[in-house]
Specification:
mainly beta; globular; Methylamine Dehydrogenase, Chain H; Jelly Rolls; single chain
């Protein structure tokens, strides 16, 4: 038999005749040396309900330096305690776009892209509006060396607060001088502010100057800007964002070591180019099971893509409604709070835990789908006598031989253009760990694409497949 490994993430090429590999709600993990297959595909984290939100539409979740969790829903700001109970603190401008929050150890500053701002006093949880005349609002707020760091919306200026205060000096402002394009957003990495413009970006460092403490990093200028301000997110020593420059847009970049590296593939970029408006893209990072994920959602397009920093591969995240339609993932914001990777629902506002041991979206089925590479043998016809799916099986507690979880197989004999009806086989009832998922007598093709899927709430791993074939002379 011929082994069929799955060595890559999602890659549906501009022409499906080149590659048609979908990877939905599954992420890769390299197998140790000596394993039968080089990789395994594991179910992406499911959602476990933590709390029903008092109102709809989560705009932000933020864990402060004292461990307290805060959230913004619509126009209301909440403190969320360890029992996931919501306490109203105050109100901000109404809206449904993302909100940014950061603290300096004493106060949380909140901005929403307007000229307004709001403050939460840590500990006391008192709430107030920023009234300082030298405060200009911001699209995103960050903290660097005890200073709040913000962009002045609609300009190429950025500014800082006084040290450890929500107070501002009219002279503590600077311009992104390399090029005059407006600053899209500001983000701090390695204790250095990055001002991401709409076409170019600049990195700064704390020079300790008397007038304005930050100075432009010598010799560093990035010819990539940011088309979606809320796509910017950070993990460890990397920044991620959806880029734009003078020549075009829709490349996903990672900023590292004062340079921008392209991490999107041609296939991902071709997909994003279909979305129309991408300026509303929302990005956040979370770490779970040793994997650092950058999740990028396109609300207008109703799509979600996830980059795995550990393996450098992409996969899709989808949520399936009761009509079987695919939608963006439920998470609109994410934070690590009280020992839990917690996220807020973009629609209901409900809080969920992202959990690798949960195989539903808060009780709703999750579709897991993986398309195999093209099966071609010197462009000759091949008879497929048998296809064996190599998966972990027999792990669904309570399942019986009369009602086992099922896996579906479809295939395309026209190079991925159309697929036939799904054929189901049992994945093994509880304890049937040696179940072999085998499909026999699958006909003949010159270029075949197999697709495996399941939605049973079961711990499993898809490793690859085995093929028993007879090649022909033409």
């Amino acid at each position: 038999m011929v082994q069929v490994p799955l060595n890559y993430g999602a890659y549906v090429a501009r022409s499906i005749t080149a590659d048609d590999q979908r990877c939905v709600n599954l992420f890769l993990e390299p197998s140790p040396g000596g394993s039968p297959f080089p990789t395994s595909h594991y179910p992406a984290p499911g959602l476990t309900g933590l709390a029903v939100a008092p109102t709809t539409g989560c705009r932000c979740l933020y864990t402060a330096s004292n461990g307290a969790l805060y959230g913004v829903y619509g126009s209301t700001v909440y403190y969320i305690d360890r029992s996931w109970s919501f306490t109203t603190l105050g109100t901000i401008n109404p809206g449904d776009t993302p909100v940014s929050m950061r603290d300096n150890g004493f106060e949380v500053l909140i901005v929403d892209g307007s000229s307004s701002g709001w403050v939460i006093e840590l500990g006391a949880n008192t709430f107030s509006t920023v009234t300082d005349p030298n405060f200009y609002g911001g699209t995103r707020v960050d903290v660097c060396d005890t200073y709040f760091v913000l962009n002045r919306p609609g300009t190429n200026n950025w500014y800082i607060s006084l040290t450890n205060q929500v107070a501002f000096d009219a002279l503590d402002i600077a311009s992104k001088t390399g090029k005059p394009d407006p600053i899209s957003t500001v983000i701090v990495m390695h204790n250095e502010p990055w001002t991401l413009g709409t076409q170019t970006s600049q990195v700064w460092y704390d020079a300790g100057a008397a007038d304005f403490t930050f100075a432009s990093m010598p010799g560093v200028f990035i010819e990539q800007g940011c088309v979606a301000p809320h796509s910017a997110a950070k993990y460890d020593l990397s920044i991620y964002w959806l880029s734009q420059n003078e020549q075009g847009q829709n490349i996903i970049m990672r900023g590292n070591s004062y340079a921008a590296e392209r991490i999107s593939t041609f296939a991902i970029e071709a997909e994003i180019s279909k979305y129309g408006d991408v300026s509303d893209a929302i990005g956040f990072c979370f770490q779970i099971g040793g994997h650092a994920f950058y999740q990028l959602t396109f609300p207008s397009a109703d799509k979600t893509w996830v980059w795995d920093e550990a393996t450098k591969f992409w996969h899709e995240r989808v949520w399936i409604d009761t009509n079987g339609q695919w939608h963006r993932h439920r998470a609109n914001a994410c934070a690590f709070a009280y020992g839990v990777n917690v996220c807020g629902d973009w629609e209901t506002g409900d809080l969920y835990a992202l959990d690798l041991e949960t195989y539903t979206d808060n009780g709703n089925p999750i579709l897991y789908l993986r398309t195999f590479p093209h099966m071609v043998k010197d462009s000759k016809r091949v008879t497929y006598q048998r296809f064996v799916i190599d998966m972990e099986v027999g792990t669904l507690e309570g399942s019986t031989p009369d009602n086992p979880p099922m896996v579906s197989l479809r295939w395309s004999d026209d190079r991925g253009a159309t697929f036939g009806d799904a054929v189901q086989m049992p994945m093994g009832a509880a304890g049937q760990y040696d179940t072999s998922i085998q499909y026999w007598g699958l006909g003949m093709a010159r270029d075949r694409v197999f697709e495996v899927s399941w939605s049973a709430p079961v711990r499993t791993a898809l490793n690859g497949g085995w093929l028993d074939v007879i090649p022909h002379g033409t």
